[in-house]
Amino acid sequence: MFYHVKELQYNAKPAAPDPVYAKKLQEILGGQFGEMSVMMQYLFQGWNCRAESKYRDMILDIATEEIAHVEMIATMIAQLLDGAPANDQEEAAKNPAVEAVLGGMNPQHAIVNGLGAQPNDSVGYPWTARYTIASGNLLADFRANLNAESQGRLQVCRLYEMTTDTGVRDMLSFLIARDTMHQNQWMAAIEELEQTQGAIVPSSFNQEYEKQEVSYSFMNFSAGEESSTGRWANGQTYDGQANFEYVQSPQAMGQKPALQPAPPYIHGTPPLDLRKAQGAGKLEPNTNQNQQGFH
């Protein structure tokens, strides 16, 4: 059960309207790494959590905070759109110099949303649940969460650099700080899980079933050997089970693919020798009514 508190978690009030920046801000609302994505990702991870209760509680704590961040950004976008109907901008844009400065307001902010935010990214692509990850394996999920927070913080920092509005920067500075905490939070949780279940996901799979000859081999599939100096190619592996092996010239270990010709009713392109046989009249077309397939 959730309660709504009328006050925002932190201030979300621009110094002045800016409809063009409102369009940019949509990215951290409804983009792949926006607040809607982490909100839904964390909520479903929490609701589906079957591990000990401290993990469920922690996930839902941050998930609920992300709802507050969605509200803050939506509120900021709406205020950036204050007093900026699309027709005024279009009139101003008749001047090429002004048009270049404006860069283009999102017309849907006025036409569809009535000067409000929308659950889309900065180019109007709708938010989708495919952005979210909730696998049931906490180590795998927490690593995905760390990536989401890393990408999200990167985007907020870039948006901070794209405005001089003191009110917008104030809100973004708060979100950047929270993303700092959330990255640290997921790294701490990842470290804790790795200490109990190992570094490789899933830890419950019997490694004897792997092709262990290649489990720890870094294979060089490009010209040059610069990659050989990396930590991923030298020393003990992070699961502590072996040492990395650097393979300079990996050899093919599989067969040369040779697929069987498709049956005649598929009407594909048969091998050359078969085409020659058909041209010489040596093969009759398949007339069996039970084998006509797609006819």
TrEMBL record:
Residues bound to Mn(2+) 1: E35, H69, E149, H182
Keywords associated with the record: Calcium, Manganese, Metal-binding
Residues given in the record as Mn(2+) 2 binding sites: E66
A GO molecular function held by the record: metal ion binding
Swiss-Prot/TrEMBL cofactor(s): Mn(2+); Ca(2+)
Lineage top rank: taxon: Bacteria
Pfam families (alphabetical): Mn_catalase
Region Disordered, residue ranges: 250-295
Binding residue positions for Ca(2+): D57, D61, N220, S222, G224
Claim: Manganese is one of the keywords in the record: yes
Biased composition (Polar residues): 285-295
Coiled-coil ranges per UniProt: none
Cofactor binding notes: Binds 2 manganese ions per subunit. Binds 1 Ca(2+) ion per subunit.
InterPro entries tied to this protein: Ferritin-like, Ferritin-like_SF, Mn_catalase, Mn_catalase_C, Mn_catalase_dom
Keyword rRNA-binding: no
Similarity comment text for this entry: Belongs to the manganese catalase family.
Protein name: Mn-containing catalase
